[in-house]
Amino acid sequence: MKNLIVVLLSVVSFTFAFSQEKVADFGQNTETYSKNRTNGVYVFHLNANEYTEAQIQKASSYYKNNFLVSTKKDGDKIKVQVSLKGISQENKNVIQRLFVGLEVKEISYKGETFKPLDFLQKYI
After folding, report:
1. Which residues have C-beta within 8 Å of that of residue 114, sequence separation ≥ 6?
2. 33 closest CA partner among 77, 75, 82
3. Using CB atoms within 10 A as the burial measure, which of 7, 8, 55, 64 is most buried?
4. Strands, E, within the chain: which ranges?
5. What is the mean pLDDT of residues 82-88?
6. Side-chain half-sphere of 112: how many Cα atoms within 13 Å?
7. Domains in the chain, ordered, with CATH?
8. Gyration radius (Cα) of the chain, Å
9. What angle do the packed helices 53-60 and 89-101 form, to 10 degrees?
10. How far is the C-alpha of 96 from the C-alpha of 77, rounded, in Å?
11. 104-109/22-25 β-pairing
12. 13-35, pLDDT tens digit by residue?
């Protein structure tokens, strides 16, 4: 019994020790960002080892009234383009729900990391 408890505790601790937080990369290009922000188009990159295009499309399918999402695998990343259907604060806020659905915990931009809500309030 004691050995079973030790094994279970070991498995749980290894699971937490090696689990990574899911991160979306917003990139570095400020010029493209400014142009796209005006058009309501935002591009993120997700790790292809953590996501599939089908997962992203399924998560985004709930928000078709607010934005369209296109995906394209690019090496070890998946490029996710979010195109708002109208530049409104409501549509921008719904992007947060997409990140929750995808379990994205951080967004990196210009060498900094942000919680999704903080990033959306500052840059979207």
Report:
1. 106, 107, 108, 122
2. 82
3. 55
4. 22-25, 41-47, 67-74, 77-84, 104-109, 112-114
5. 89
6. 8
7. 21-123 (3.30.70)
8. 17
9. 140
10. 20
11. parallel
12. 443 333 456 777 786 556 566 67
